[in-house]
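INFO  loader      accepted 1 record
INFO  loader      residues=61
INFO  predictor   begin
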Amino acid sequence: MASSLLLAFALMLVLEGVMPFAAPRVWRETFRRVTEMNDGQLRFIGLTSMLIGIVIMAFVV
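INFO  predictor   done
INFO  writer      dumping tokens
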């Protein structure tokens, strides 16, 4: 179980690093826009991404 969690964490880091590596200008502009959003918008994005992750996990497991 611990090795699976560590592998998932490593994969998350790799995926998170793709955009800043491949397109730093686009990533910076996107990050700037995210910092200008209000709390409600950020919470909605966070909730949506969590729900998508749960659905994907349900299909995989």
